[in-house]
Structures are given as structure tokens and as C-alpha cells.
Amino acid sequence: MKTMEMISLKSSREIELMRRAGRLTAQARALAGSMVHPGVTTLEIDAAVRRFIESHGARPSFLNYNGFPGSACISVNEVVIHGIPGRRKLREGDIVSVDVGACLDGFHGDCAATYPCGQVSEEAMRLIQVTEQSFWEGIKQAQPGKRVYDISHAVQQYVETNGYSVVRDFVGHGVGAKLHEAPEVPNFGPAGHGPRLQPGMTIAVEPMVNAGGWQVKVLKDKWTTVSADGSLAAHYENTIVITDAGPEILTVTGDGAYV
User: Fold this and answer.
1) In the chain, how many domains are there?
2) For residue 135, what is the domain's CATH number?
3) b or e along 8-46 (b: 16 or more beta carbons within 10 Å of the residue's beta carbon)?
4) Sequence-ordered strand ranges (E) for the chain
5) Do residues 100 and 49 make contact, with C-beta atoms less than 8 angstroms apart?
6) What band does 254 get if pLDDT is binned at 50, 70 and 90?
7) Is 20 inside any structural domain?
8) What's the mean pLDDT in 92-117?
């Protein structure tokens, strides 16, 4: 029998700690994004992210998490998520998804974005834009009293209306003292289902979108996850907290942003 993990509702003090962790995580994501240029290796980006996080008294959430060897997941083109940093040099026209986590004072921030490397095709740029916008469409539903799958359904509807597919094998999740907590936050599903959203819930909403079919496969390294049909993929994520007034994004480079 599977034991259901309880959803953690954060106190005002814990939310403030998560704002600090989220701000640092967002700054690390922005740093990584600024480094996406032709000729830069994914390992160079990873090393810069690690130095930045550690220089602020925090630790990279992903480093050695279940054996992951990097401080950031850096996924290029058809790689959806969990790309392992290495000697690969970025090339003009690549799209590069960077997923970053930082743990500060016992709490995690988690966020991701996909960046164009130099000049990219119109189709690649559209995929990036639709993926990010699907996040914003989703969190319009992140209101107290609604349900998790209201977010999920809004993401799926927007993505599929634009001719793309949402990945189904991986989902968003709760965030807090643990990097992954309850509840799961899929990017697909029927509205009106799932746990009810309550003030104090902290979740990572993270659309993962393929230009082709939704199916993925995990490579022999047991981490790198690619679109099964080789189509381009994009990823966008922020950690949010549900408040009485609606969602607040915690992974922002300045003060928390209410939506």
C-alpha cells in the first residue's frame, strides 16, 4: 500500500525563508541564461551556477541529488530535462533549457527557463514563448479554493491549442524543506480534480513541452530525457506560494511578485 504524503502548509516565517531561497535560485537561473552563447560549454555554465550559489552561503539542490552529477540540469534542443553538464559546446541556433535549484537556510527554490543560443528559427522561438506562456496561463488558476488540476488543465489547453504536446512522464511538485514534496502538479488532466489549493502551499509549476509528440525516453545515463521523436523541447518553471490574494512567484530576482 502506498502511503500518501501530507501536503506541507508553510508558515509566514517559512515563506519568507523560501522567498530568500527563491530569489537566489532565480538569480542563478538568470546568470546561466546570460551565458548561453555559441562556443560556451554546458559545464562552464554549470560551474558558474555552482560558484554563484555557494558564494551566497547556499548549496545547489541538484548536486548529488539521487546521484545527479551537476549543479544545474542543462538540456539542449531535443533534451527535455535532466541534461548532464559536460564538454558540449553550444552552437548558433540551439535552444537551451536550464533548471536550477538552491537550498538556503533549509529551504529550496526551483526554477527553469529555455534560452535561445544566438539566432534561432522562428519555430524554436515560438516553442520557447508558448512554453513560458503556458506557465502563466496555468497559474491564473492558482487561487485558494481551486484544485491542482485546474492549473494542469489550463497548461495543457494552452499548449495543445498551439499545436504542441505536454510531457506526461514528468510533473511539477511541492517544494519546501525537501526539493520534492507533495503534491504532484501535472501539466495535463481534467479541471476540478486533485488536492484543493490552500494558502501556504508552495509548488513548482513547470510545463515541459515538445514540438512533436508527448512521449519521451531516458538515455543510458539514466538522467538525460529526450523527446522520443527527436523534436525540440522547452521547459519553464517557477516556485510559487498560494496566498489569500492568489499566487506569488518566489523565484524572482527582486522582491516577490504577486500575480
Assistant:
1) 1
2) 3.90.230.10
3) bebeeebbebbbbbbbbbbbbbbbbbebbeeebbbbebb
4) 59-60, 72-76, 79-81, 95-104, 107-116, 165-166, 172-174, 181-185, 202-205, 208-210, 216-218, 225-227, 233-235, 238-243, 246-249, 257-258
5) yes
6) confident
7) no
8) 98
The cell for 80 is: 527535455
User: Which secondary structure element, helix H or strand E, spans residue 126, and what is its range?
Assistant: helix 122-139
DSSP assignment of 181-232 = EEEEE-SS--TT-SSBP-TTBEEEE--EEESS-S-EEE-TTSS-EEETT---
Cα–Cα–Cα angle for 149, 182, 113, nearest 5°? 70
| Cell, residue 208 | 515541459
Mean pLDDT of 189-193: 98
pLDDT of residue 40: 98
- At residue 184, what is the residue type? E
This prediction's pTM: 0.96
The average confidence (pLDDT) of the chain is 96
Can you tell me the mean pLDDT for 189-215? Answer: 98
The answer to whether position 50 is within a domain reads yes
Q: What is the CA radius of gyration of the chain?
A: 17
CA angle, residues 198, 204, 209, in degrees to nearest 5 = 130
- Beta-carbon contacts of 239 under 8 Å, excluding residues fewer than 6 positions away, are 18, 22, 25, 108, 109, 110, 111, 175, 202, 203, 204, 249, 250, 251
- Calculated CA dihedral for residues 46, 48, 49, 54, nearest 10 degrees: 120
Question: Is 118 domain-assigned?
Answer: yes
* H or E stretch at 149: helix 148-161
